[in-house]
Amino acid sequence: MIGIGGIFLRARNPARLAAWYRAHLGIPMNDRGTVTFHWEETATRDNPGTTTLALFAQDTDYFGEPGQRAMLNLRVDDLAALLDRLRAHGVEVLEQTEDSEYGRFGWCVDPEGNRVELWEPARGM
User: Fold this and answer.
1) Number of neighbouring beta carbons within 10 Å of residue 24
2) pTM of the model
3) What PROSITE patterns does UniProt report for this protein, alphabetically (predicted)?
4) What residues make up the domain containing 109?
């Protein structure tokens, strides 16, 4: 294995959800709901870029609703500004944020009820 090839979500309306991710999180998804990120284009020595695969217990509440089987974790460069912008656009933003050795974390919820984790990495991550 050499890395994670993708993250896949079920969507009731893929085109509408792709438009939401484009408009509110800046993810350049096409109308079919796909985008490919190329780390070599954005990685630097101080910010090498990483992708993590992590398993959680079946009864975790970290993802939000019990039926949510996956959660996106999106790297952001200014968490506070993004959360403010999302709130201004009427996006559901969870009040809790978390600071850790890995960086700062916040969460929002997409129109289909999926909790999305927003991560401002600590320097060097």
Assistant:
1) 18
2) 0.83
3) VOC
4) 14-121
